[in-house]
């Protein structure tokens, strides 16, 4: 138990564990999002796709378990990408202040740096994740059929070279920066505002964690969706399909206009909001039960 003058702070690896746990729950929604983003046009079988129709088609064609295609890659991605970004962010915050309570502008800067590092580290697993999720859309004889994430990494390295492991890395890193700013810094800020200005309503408990993470999910989805669409297309592209990021942007704009950059926004939000909520709820439970106890300080935000 901690007293009023103490607070528990997260250990550096809690974020990776929490994100992996959340990924186990939300992976089917992530897969459906990828299917929206890699569609060549806005129509599926002559009718506009919906979350329900896309889900039904996947299950009817490949079975219920196909909703979990690429789960090993998703877990590997969270254990690399999220462990890196959460770890750097938490360690840096605690270096600036023992209880991790720092001004908002510092949170944004730390989140951007942490997101960039996480994007680079997690890019290979992210690329395999996209490919494994999208495999069931391909004709049977064109499927990559990776057995798991490690098998996928080995096959890509052997058949396409080491550079292919970082295909779309620039866009993945840009997205990771925006995602980490939208999630980590905004969650801390929303939580601070709730605890500071509505102390009679919100305490350091699951209700506050749920409220702050829900608001965070909406911000993060809006900030990252255009980059997420481009990242998905680049990572799933065949060899020499796109000459550059600019070429990918130009083709997407010609095909779908501005709205194309927000393709899959609804399934992305439906996936990202629960994932964000679960990640921070799991993270807070790890912090409250297993975190490091430090003296509590008063800070001006």
From TrEMBL:
Membrane topology, from the record: Multi-pass membrane protein
Signal peptide: none
UniProt KW keywords: Membrane, Repeat, Transmembrane, Transmembrane helix, Transport
Solcar repeats: 10-95, 106-193, 204-289
Keyword ATP-binding: no
Places the protein is found: Membrane
InterPro entries, per the entry: MCP_dom_sf, MCP_transmembrane, Mito_Metabolite_Transporter
GO cellular component: membrane
One Pfam family hit: Mito_carr
Family statement: Belongs to the mitochondrial carrier (TC 2.A.29) family.
Protein name (record): Mitochondrial dicarboxylate carrier
Species: Blomia tropicalis (Mite)
Lineage: Eukaryota, Metazoa, Ecdysozoa, Arthropoda, Chelicerata
